[in-house]
Amino acid sequence: MNRFLPILFFFFFSNIIYAQGFNLIFGGETADNQAYKVVEVPNEDAYLVIDRGPLSGSESITLNVNKIDLQGNIISSIAHPYNYDPLDFLFLEHSFKIALDATSELYFLEFDYSGQLIAEIIHTLPNQVFTYQLKFLSDHSILFTEHDFPDFHLTKLSADGDLIWKTENAFLGSNNIHQMHILPNNDFLVLSYNFTEILYKFDQNGNLLWENNQLPDFQYIRYLIPYPDQQTYLIYSSTAYRLAAVSSDGNLLWNKNFTAHFNDIDKLGIIEGPLNTLYISGKANIDNINTQILMHLNVEGNLITKKQYNEFNSNIKGQLLRDSDNGFLIATAAYPALGFSSDPYIYKLDTEGNFIWSWHQERLGSYIHREAILTSDGGYLILGNENILDIGSPYQNHLTKLDVNGDVYTRQINGQLVIDNNQTCSLEEEEEGLSNWLIQLNGWQTFFESTDENGFFSIACNADSVLLKAIPYNSLWEACPEEITIHFDNIFDTTTVNLNMQTTEFCPVIELDISTPFLRRCFDNTYYATLKNRGTTVAQNIQLNIDLDPFFIFQETSVSDYILSGELFTINIGNLDVNESYNFTFKVEVSCDASLGEIHCLSANSLIQNECSSFHHHRILECQPNIGSFDPNDKRAFVNGYQTDQFVTKDSLIEYQIRFQNTGTDTAFNVVIKDTLSHLLDISSFKLGSSSHPVQLEFGKSRSIIFKFDNIMLPDSNMNEAASHGFVKFKIHHIPTLELGDVIPNKASIYFDFNEPIHTNVIGLEIQAPTSVYQNIQTENSFLSIYPQPAYKEVNFQFMEEQLFYQEDFSLDVFNANGQLLMK
């Protein structure tokens, strides 16, 4: 049977060369990384990102030149020992220049596009002199302002760093409140402030041509740009909502107040239009909704058109770009909900400012937009920084490539994963699909997808050639073949590829998980249990034994065939076919005799009649404290059955539980949870655990896992508090290369119907060394040895003198890895 069924879709557009996309995260692992600039490398298929911060594996703050290929792979990262902020850049055909502010010195550096340093020039400033504005001129000379209190000067250096001229008291000013703009003939403008706004024009030799000190008050941050004809100059402020135009001879042409139209505009929020008109992007608050706006002004500053975009709660001013098709792009960051988390957001508009598409990507932490540029292949590069954990944690670079339609990924692979009963390594009509198995695709990036209830999957990608494979659940399964190579000829190709799993041994394997969203003292609490046969043959006569905590008072269960004997709860499950699941619930009351906050543990194991010698029955343990009040929408982590919010030992299996509650005023019809996993977690090890309601699993791009509770009909807490809760649980390993002290951040976003998402707390688990792999603890009398420490499934107590064991009473305190007392 033909395993490759290519279906090609051809799209015809004139004069457009389509780009392909990628997501790249790099830098800032130990300290903040500040991205400054992204450019295309001239005459090369590569991009350049210039940033300041530590390279991977380093703690030193350096100036870094990162070269990246068109697929989003880092070609090289070269660190240079300069811990200073760039003032300006000059990009040439074969090299580029950077000016750095070192407080008492100015560094002028030249690099080739491989990141190698070509030249270094150091200009020493007089004592107590500060630089506020610096610009490279077209002839590579350097112009900057000096503040030698109370005087301001203008200084011009040659490209070799030699002094050309310096003015004396050339302009008035106040600290850093001035801007400078270079004109095409190397004349320049200086906008300063000395109790009033002052605009100066100088020629390229530093001679004052004119000044205007009769300008309106712009109050705070001032910006200065020329009109397209270079004969009119626009002055504006991001916070005073005021724009003014000055003629080429220094006269005020008009002064407008736009308070009624916007709240804030960005320094890069104004671009030229036809016939000396202007386009302005900003943010406005309209009917208590933060929205992006686009205004078109004529040459007199009068409003021609105004557009507003309500697709997102966009309350951060944005960069405005004129696209190659004469449309517009607004690049910004936006807060999707209350809190410090923010995400990148892009609006694509047509030539009239009408909305075409938007691109938004949920980030784990707080995202800051740095720069967006148009690429020569018709795409867009978006550069930003993200604080990946919380305030005070490192910032990392985010570089995203979008194609002309706002897509990162444009090619599609569809298929089905089946049990290869006939051992033919091909799909037969009668063969059964495998649900909730992971499919992995390796190309320019690595993507994952989960098969649906019938084993079907669909993965989008952007590479010309990829490797596709299914991940076996255990050693009883093997993929046939292990992986498949797929080649694409066109950017929008779609192909169908089916995958097969063969058995290496016929054996049942039970995967078990039992959990509850919380334990309330003196109340009934519901546990949700799920069993799955991940083996290769029917699991016969399954018996599940659950050891209840001594403070648990059994109430009821959804199964009929069970036995309760003291604290032992035994259920006869019957048979489970391959890939079949069994779910049930039971309720326990936490005794009022338990202390508030006391840890309660539940353990369980499954017994199978036809168990194989190479596979043991599955044991689980879950321990959590009883509680009073709690945040109803949060995320928790468990390691070895115990809850933790700080530490995890290396190579531990982490269990995450996401809890949610409908605290609104009406029934929630659908609930969606989006969990964007840290790059420090190994997605290939993901295993779905128990959940309070039936859940559908999807894998999104940028390492996101989506849990969908369709038609959950979750009542609000006012109508039915007990039924208003839900949760989902999953297991995952961290990547094996982590070292002690590395922190794994993770959080989730919860969507109730069409409401704004609720963001959970961020859990940062630090890799910590265990007390010991094997350790004997002995008393002064050396009569007792306890090992291993820390312990998971069992602990050995060895008495050195047998008579003491029978003659003495002993007290035993058991603590978890966080120092919490579990039992006494």
User: In total, how many beta strands?
Assistant: 68
- Radius of gyration of CA atoms, rounded to a whole number: 32 Å
Tell me the strand percentage band: over 45%
- Helices, by number, come to 1
Structural class category: mainly beta
- Mean pLDDT metric: 84
Oligomeric assembly: single chain
Q: Specify the overall morphology.
A: elongated
Helicity range: under 10%
Question: How would you characterize the overall build of this protein?
Answer:
The chain has 824 residues and is mainly beta. It is built from one helix and 68 strands. Strands 1, 34, 37, 39, 41 and 42 form a six-stranded mixed β-sheet that branches. A five-stranded antiparallel β-sheet has the order 47-48-45-50-51, with no helix packed on it. A five-stranded antiparallel β-sheet has the order 53-52-55-60-57, with no helix packed on it. Strand 29 and strand 30 form a beta hairpin. It is elongated, with a radius of gyration of 32 Å. The two termini are 64 Å apart.
